[in-house]
Structure to design on (549 residues):
């Protein structure tokens, strides 16, 4: 194992950006990939709290201000766990909770913090005294209307409700109107003697509760229209109702609409000349709205492909269950496996435009890139962790397409056994054409060191090497290949010969969370990205820019 040349600060930044003290980022829920539970990460955080808490909190503030931070929930995960360290002082606990309140951008982020804090307290009380005081401050800074809107939007996150927290913290206000709102949330009671302002606010809460319960679509649409509620407040029984969806869409963000496209298509709401069709065409092709949404182009692309392909393929485990446990007939199994491609060409074209517009939401790094893509049979037939709609090659091509539109210097190559083939493309190439070019020559195996070797031989200067590779790439490699070609030695030679000592390597393995190239080592300028989604792309962007090493 190579000796680490990362400083403590650089290792802490890795934790905040990739949820790991080593070199590996895994796409998915951090509850499944808990970096804090690893001994190395725990020791790193614990030591930082003991020796330089202010320095650690400063790094968290720095990450919080980064609009490209892959997963904001990681900040609250570690802040919550810091509070549960045995030897942290009361003054330090207060400093941590103050930072939580400072950086929270939504109720959901605060409830994320509460969830992680309560889950790691074992047999102690659910929340510490310090956190209970922070809960009080969280609610005290809300106006009566803001409190009602918070309750109406989501009255519960992660098994915690607003009522639970308000009751636990004994929240009280110095204004009569807010105390009336708090009293209603706790006891569901009100009075005719209340001032008109309080009555109006309580009515908003009552209507949200009615919307969650009613099965009357006409009543639901009436409430949605009056109070601008979204699908999250609607009784699930009405989630198959066209009129309800037509009413809620104008109250939803672009990021919230994208995951619902499949549902809208099945309900027939994407048909030409329908109100929903016209509304979606506008938000998908409006440059200002796409920019304001901050949506990442890979999110747009992924949901576009999911719609186009008729959803993601059936999970093999579910298929096995249906075949062996449920004993479905061949005809039933065929129906379960069949995906029907969406027939809404104008919406798909609008989503392609949205993808191009969303590329402007990605800030250029001004680096020189070489992207090398595995085009073996395994890569073409394996789906991505975190994005089952795409296979490994489609994921690589979509990422390359974003880089082509965002960056000035991008070279694309495919592995061809022990060498690479350079693909000459223009910046405005379509996804379909780029896939065709990439897949024109299939490879029997892929040797990722060949990208460094080619760059050295051709005297090409690259700041970042990005290798998309299948997790079983070694299986077909001839035994005659030298061991050094599986290691970082060719990269080190390239760095030396090109005089680019900080040239970076990103090993992207979309197909498995268990791939290791750099992940077991604490070395700078080299990371593994396991799986593929927008957060993986943000990790690569931040790493390439030099936000962390």
């Amino acid at each position: 194992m190579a000796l680490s040349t990362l400083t403590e600060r650089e290792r802490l930044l890795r934790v905040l950006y990739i949820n790991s003290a080593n070199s590996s980022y895994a796409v998915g829920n951090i509850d499944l990939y808990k970096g804090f539970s690893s001994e190395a990460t725990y020791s790193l955080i614990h030591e930082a709290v003991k020796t330089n808490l202010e320095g650690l909190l400063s790094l968290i503030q720095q990450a919080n201000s980064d609009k490209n931070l892959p997963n904001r929930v990681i900040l609250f995960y570690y802040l919550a766990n810091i509070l549960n360290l045995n030897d942290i002082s009361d003054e330090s606990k207060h400093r941590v909770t103050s930072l939580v309140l400072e950086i929270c951008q939504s109720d959901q982020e605060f409830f994320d913090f509460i969830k992680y804090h309560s889950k790691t307290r074992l047999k102690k009380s659910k929340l510490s005294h310090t956190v209970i005081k922070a809960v009080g401050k969280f609610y005290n800074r809300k106006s009566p209307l803001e409190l009602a809107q918070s309750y109406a939007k989501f009255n519960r996150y992660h098994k915690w409700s607003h009522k639970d927290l308000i009751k636990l913290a004994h929240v009280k206000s110095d204004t009569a109107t807010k105390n009336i709102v708090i009293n209603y949330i706790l006891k569901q009671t009100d009075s005719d003697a209340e001032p008109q302002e309080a009555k109006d606010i309580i009515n908003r809460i009552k209507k949200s509760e009615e919307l969650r319960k009613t099965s009357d679509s006409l009543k639901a649409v009436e409430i949605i229209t009056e109070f601008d509620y979204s699908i999250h407040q609607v009784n699930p029984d009405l989630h198959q109702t066209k009129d309800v969806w037509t009413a809620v869409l104008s109250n939803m963000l672009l990021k919230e609409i994208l995951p619902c496209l499949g549902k809208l298509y099945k309900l027939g709401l994407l048909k030409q000349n329908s109100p929903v069709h016209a509304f979606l065409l506008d938000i998908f092709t409006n440059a200002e709205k796409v920019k304001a949404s901050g949506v990442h182009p890979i999110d747009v692309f992924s949901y576009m492909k999911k719609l186009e392909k008729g959803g993601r393929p059936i999970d093999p485990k579910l298929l096995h269950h249906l075949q062996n446990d449920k004993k479905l007939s061949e005809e039933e199994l065929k129906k379960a496996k069949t995906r029907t491609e969406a027939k809404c060409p104008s919406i798909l074209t609008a989503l392609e435009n949205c993808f191009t517009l969303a590329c402007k939401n990605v800030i250029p790094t001004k680096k020189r890139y070489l992207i090398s893509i595995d085009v073996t049979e395994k890569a073409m037939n394996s789906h991505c962790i975190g994005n089952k709609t795409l296979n490994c090659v489609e994921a690589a091509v979509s990422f390359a397409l974003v880089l082509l539109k965002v960056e000035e210097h991008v070279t694309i190559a495919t592995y061809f056994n022990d060498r690479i083939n350079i693909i000459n493309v223009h910046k405005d190439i379509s996804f379909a054409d780029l896939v065709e070019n990439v897949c024109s020559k299939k490879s029997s195996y892929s040797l990722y060191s060949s990208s460094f070797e080619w760059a050295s031989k051709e005297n090409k200067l690259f700041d970042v090497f990005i290798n998309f590779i299948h997790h079983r790439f070694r299986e077909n490699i001839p035994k005659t290949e030298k061991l050094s070609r599986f290691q970082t030695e060719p990269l080190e030679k390239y760095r030396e010969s090109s005089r680019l000592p900080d040239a970076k390597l990103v090993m992207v393995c979309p197909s498995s969370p268990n791939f290791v190239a750099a992940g077991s080592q604490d070395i700078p300028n080299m990371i593994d990205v396991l799986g593929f989604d927008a957060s993986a792309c943000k990790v690569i962007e931040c790493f390439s820019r030099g936000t962390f090493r």
Residues 298 and 399 are 7 Å apart (CA to CA). Residues 39-64 form the longest helix (26 residues). The chain has three domains: 8-141, 260-352, 363-545.
